[in-house]
Amino acid sequence: GTLSQQRSRDRARPRHMVPKLFDWLPSSMSLSRWTPYELMLALAFSLGLAWLIRWGASKGYPARRLLGVGLFVMAGALLGARWLPWWLSGRPGFASAHELPLFAYGGFVGGAVALFAGARLGRVSLAGAFDAVAPATAMGLALARVGCFLTGCDYGDPCARPSLLASTAVQYPAWSTPVNAQLSAPAHVDHVARAWVAPSAVSSLPIYPVQLYESLLGLVLFVVVLQVDPGRPWRRGVVLAAGYAIGRFLLEFLRGDADRGLRVWHTALTSSQLLSVAVLCFVGAVACTQRWRSRRAP
């Protein structure tokens, strides 16, 4: 029943699924290759680019112009994901840019700004392009979070009490050596540092696979967004933004990693949850404005 009893049981005999995460095997750490997360992120970007070009072809836009807009959006998303949280956190020092985590909301903000600028420069309908990439963004979210699960980042909190969600718990493995404990899965390293498990433990505590929950959220949003009438400008993008903000706000309560965002105002809310509230307010304002304009239209 208690968390301490659960830790003792798990140290004695792991009872939950342990992901086989090949990137953490000591024999592979020296290889220069992409992580599962990077592969999934590249697939997500490719999907979004293909979707944008497909939409542009139906509207008569040259494929080369849409390709330029898509690459511009990708660059903006990557820059926003990497550097926006760094700037907001006071521009702390770092030895390498690879030390900075990718922040999902930063990617969305950077991608949206780049889409606005790219659509203007490429003389493409902003509302149309925004709605065109909405389904691909939802599917990209689903793919990227699978990559997070395989890589071990953005992991969940320990499951303290039996519940339906606790039945889906996973344990991340320990591949640590006396020379380099960082070969372990990030969740295992974190739990050892907090003294939740012994350094000799073969796995972390059972934790919520929030990456898979968010991947499921992306799949649901993909299906929902496709049901929205594409002839109504901005509607698909608004539905996607609202759905993600609500889902992300709730899933933050199950996150256990330090990269999920800073606590704000000494409350249980994180910066990601605060951004979710801001997105919902913005979406509500856009929806009210669109309805007011439609009523005033002759």
Feature tags:
single chain; 298 residues; mainly alpha; 9 helices
Counted by DSSP, the helix tally is 9
- Give average pLDDT, whole number: 79
Total number of strands: 0
Please state roughly what percent of the residues sit in beta strands, choosing from under 5%, 5-15%, 15-25%, 25-35%, 35-45% or over 45%: under 5%
Descriptive report:
The chain is mainly α. 58% of the residues lie in helices and 0% in strands. It is built from nine helices and no strands. It has helices at 3-12, 36-59, 63-88, 104-121, 126-151, 186-193, 210-227, 235-251, 271-296. The termini are far apart. The model is unreliable at 1-32 (pLDDT under 50).
Brief summary:
With 298 residues, the chain is mainly α. It is built from 9 helices and no strands.
What are the SSEs and their pairings?
Elements: H1 3-12, H2 36-59, H3 63-88, H4 104-121, H5 126-151, H6 186-193, H7 210-227, H8 235-251, H9 271-296
Helix pairs in contact: 2-3, 2-5, 3-4, 5-7, 5-8, 7-8, 8-9
